[in-house]
Amino acid sequence: MKKINIVTTFAIALLLSSCAMKKDLAACQEENKALQTNYVDTKEKLAAANVRVASLEEQLKRQEQAVSALQQSLDKSLSNANQNNISIDKLVDQINESNKYIRHLVEIKSKSDSLNVVLTNNLTRSLSKEELKEVDVQVLKGVVYISLADNMLYKSGSYEINDRAAETLSKIAKIIKDYKDYDVLIEGNTDNVPINRENIRNNWDLSCLRASSVVQALQNQYGVDPKRLTAGGRGEYNPLQPNTTELGKQRNRRTQIIITPKLDEFMELIGQAPEE
Question: Is the dihedral of CA 178, 266, 212, 192 positive or negative?
Fold first, then answer.
């Protein structure tokens, strides 16, 4: 009877133990199933995350390229801006230099115009009313023109200076000597009537000879520096009026004393012009 109880107890214990193992196995299986589900879900999430990371990396790469392009554009713009600033500065310097040169020219012209006015006034005041009838004084484009009628200066049909012209030439010579910064051109002009004199071929010769006579008188009799003097003739080819009337011919027979600023000083001013 006692053995039966022991066997029974052992069987019951074994049965209970078997039931417990079955429960544990079932629990393990349930847990394993849950883990498998979690694993699959996590794997899917990881794959999705990897895709997202790859997409973000591609976007980052494009952004870096865009930033690099913007930086290059900015660098180029800054470089162009610096070059433009240099060009603008250079242009401003050129404009300032040109303005300085222009102001200098204006000052020179104003000074020249003022001297011409003074010269003309001094000359006209020194001449008598009778002399002013045969001497015309004008300022044209910064040049003083003193026009003398041929019948006042020369013997008829000749290039020899008459005695009546001496006083007038002396007054003109004094003005010329007072204004040493001017050159003097003596220019002969005739009408279109052919000349018929021995050793004078035509009106070209006559106009040049008359101009030369005035130049030599200014030099030899009145002490004008010959380096400042030039003699030239224009014959009948620079008329003031048509040669169709006696009055027109009389106006055209003239000798002009042209007082001008020194050309070498003018050319020196031109040489000082700023480069473009």
Answer: negative
- The residues spanned by each domain of the chain are 108-270
Question: Structure pTM?
Answer: 0.59
Rounded Cα gap, residues 25 and 207, in angstroms? 146
Q: How far apart are CA 209 and CA 203, in angstroms?
A: 10
**Could you report the per-residue pLDDT of 73-111, keeping only the tens digit for each?**
777 777 776 776 666 767 666 666 666 656 644 454 565
Amino acid identity, residue 117? V
Contacts of 143 (CB under 8 A, 6+ apart): 116, 258, 259, 260
Please say whether the beta carbons of 257 and 136 come within 8 A.
Answer: no
Residues 6+ apart with CB under 8 A from 112: 142, 261
Q: Which two tokens stand for residue 166?
A: 């001496």
- Report which secondary-structure segment, H or E, holds 187: strand 182-189
- Decide if domain 108-270 falls under CATH 3.30.1330.60: yes
CA distances from 211 to 154, 205, 257 (A): 11, 10, 9
CA dihedral 252, 160, 229, 194 (to 10 degrees): 40
What sections of the chain are H helices per DSSP?
Answer: 2-126, 129-132, 150-153, 166-178, 203-220, 246-252, 263-271
Number of other CB atoms surrounding residue 139 within 10 Å: 14
- pLDDT of 266: 46
The residue type found at 213 is S
Which among 139, 159, 131, 129 has a CA at the least distance from the CA of 255? 159
